[in-house]
Design a protein that fits this description.
By secondary structure, the protein is α+β, with helices and mostly antiparallel strands. It folds into three domains: 13-277, no CATH class; 304-438, no CATH class; 447-504, Arc Repressor Mutant, subunit A. 38% of the residues lie in helices and 18% in strands. The protein contains 15 helices and 17 strands. The chain has helices at 60-72, 169-185, 225-244, 290-298, 304-315, 319-325, 329-340, 345-362, 374-385, 391-406, 429-438, 447-460, 462-469, 474-486, 493-504; strands spanning 11-21, 76-77, 80-81, 84-87, 97-100, 107-108, 111-116, 119-132, 136-138, 147-149, 156-162, 198-207, 217-222, 252-257, 262-268, 278-279, 286-287.
Length: 505
């Protein structure tokens, strides 16, 4: 790999700590619900609040999700790990401490791989440890005071800590996207960043190439990839400005202000000893036997790298295309459903990377909410393959299907489709054929009719015929154009070209 690009002569060093909310129905040490959006303080049990006489009981489902992550990244699942109390005082921390893991985390090591501009990258993981979330301070709607919502208190988190292997905001974002896709793929997290299910803290420092690591500042609670890039880029420039002005960068926790695009210091950064970690006396060591790991391993889905390799091997996809098909489990399943409905693999992949992705990106949708079902896309591809519609015509059909599936009262420019025409998910061929007919996009493939058109065009353009026979290839294109014009654009281009060549031979 080539040396990292420098920013104003400095090397950027980034590590990420990612708080992944585990997709369990109940909290990590109590039976309280983890459902999002409940009225404030209605899902905080006596255990979450550490009321006298209560004892925490570990959620087995949270442990299994941690094991899944460890297996997927090639980490070591600790046969014995310890829960500790992380002591600090904050209004939304009802116990005055957070139950976490410190010296012996449940997962140690591992790597996350991704591509940036076609170049493979790998980021090492330090650890992944189980812990409980804190509550939430609420400032909106209060005058000169704040509210405390403890519904999140005790929600299970898996904190995934990377090594400082990233050298730009782009690398950090691509790593975070790859990790986000992986935890959703594994089914251990719903990945909803707006609801706080996937939050990243970025540790950022700068140094001259070859020098020791600089002083890092931690940007807290980044819950969008766009904000992550903006925050890191601003922080890098700020730190360089400090150093260039002869000032020191002090270790600190900072927040990103999305309104101004700036980071600002919140408090001086604590070190581990400031938290006075000690083993939680109410929780025994977590013992994970090999049989448990083997069972979880047997229930794992096919991983993205393995699936991409299979698509290359069995479907003949290029490596880059296979990566796109496995960008998420939902995308991969959609692709496989299009194939299962009869579409050739490469055509299915091309349409998913082309028109489908174009529409999804424009409307900020995920593949899960595509208005066009896999069966319908396969039916459209079949009509291209059998010559019923051209590629350009198929794009018009696709746009019409998308509009009608998204909004029932959409109108085709210049033509109103029959009011009886409806589109439903998975309906397929009937809808595709209805749009082709309504928009007059069916290709002319009747050989006798095409021959009549070709004969007329050749008779009307003797100069172009002579030029082609004299070796001027451009004359052939002119004849094709005249024939397509004569057919009002409905002729099958491939069939028309073959017939022209035969007549000109």
């Amino acid at each position: 790999m080539s040396p990292p690009a420098l920013t104003r002569g400095y090397e950027v060093v980034i590590g990420l700590e990612t708080h992944t909310q585990l997709a369990t129905a109940s909290k990590i040490f109590s039976g309280a619900s983890t459902a999002f959006g409940a009225s404030p303080n209605t899902q905080a049990s006596a255990v979450d609040l550490a009321l006298p006489g209560t004892l925490p009981v570990l959620n087995r489902g949270a442990v299994e999700r941690a094991i899944r992550l460890g297996l997927a990244v090639g980490g070591t699942i600790a046969p014995l790990s310890i829960f500790a109390r992380k002591n600090y005082f904050y209004p939304d921390l009802p116990k005055g401490y957070q139950i976490s893991q410190y010296e012996l985390p449940v997962v140690q090591g591992g790597t996350v791989e991704f591509h940036l501009a076609g170049v493979p990258h790998s980021v090492r993981l330090t650890r992944a440890h189980l812990e409980e979330d804190a509550g939430k301070s609420v400032h909106e709607g209060f005058e000169d005071q704040s509210g405390i919502d403890l519904n999140r208190a005790g929600t299970p988190l898996l904190e995934i800590v990377s090594e400082p292997d990233m050298r730009s905001s782009k690398e950090a974002v691509e790593y975070a996207k790859a990790l986000h896709a992986l935890v959703v793929w594994l089914g251990i997290c719903d990945g909803n960043m707006q609801e706080g299910s996937f939050r990243c803290d970025a540790n950022v420092s700068v140094r001259r190439p070859g020098a020791p690591y600089g002083t890092r500042r931690e940007i807290k609670n980044l819950n969008s990839f766009r904000h992550m890039a903006q925050a890191i880029d601003f922080e890098v420039q700020w730190q360089i400005d400090q150093i260039e002005d002869g000032l020191q960068v002090h270790q600190a926790t900072v927040l990103f202000d999305a309104g101004t695009g700036e980071t600002r210091a919140m408090r001086s950064k604590e070190d581990a000893h400031d938290y006075r970690y000690f083993p939680d006396p109410d929780l025994p060591p977590l013992v994970i036997e090999s049989a448990w790991i083997e069972r979880v391993s047997g229930e794992m889905p096919e991983l993205p790298r393995s699936m991409a390799a299979r698509f290359e091997r069995e479907d003949g996809l290029a490596a880059a295309d296979a990566l796109v098909m496995t960008q998420s489990l939902a995308f991969a399943r959609f692709y496989e459903s299009v194939k299962a409905a009869g579409a050739p693999a490469k055509m299915a992949a091309n349409w998913l990377m082309g028109e489908v992705s174009r529409r999804l990106n424009a409307e900020e949708r995920g593949i899960e909410s595509s208005p066009i079902a896999p069966e319908t896309l396969a039916a459209l591809i079949a009509r291209i393959a059998d010559g019923t519609v051209s590629n350009n015509g198929a794009k018009q059909v696709f746009d019409e299907l998308w509009m009608f599936s998204s909004s029932r009262d959409a109108v085709v420019p210049g033509k109103v489709l029959p009011s009886s025409t409806t589109f439903s998910a998975g309906a397929g061929t009937a809808e595709v054929d209805a749009v082709i007919a309504a928009k007059g996009l069916k290709q002319l493939s009747d050989s006798s009719e095409l021959e009549r058109i070709v004969d007329a065009v050749l008779a009307a353009n003797p100069k172009s015929v002579d030029e082609y026979r004299a070796g001027k290839d451009k004359a052939f294109n002119a004849l094709v154009g005249q024939a397509m014009k004569a057919s009002k654009g409905s002729a099958n281009p491939a069939q028309l070209g073959e017939l022209l060549k035969k007549k000109l031979a």
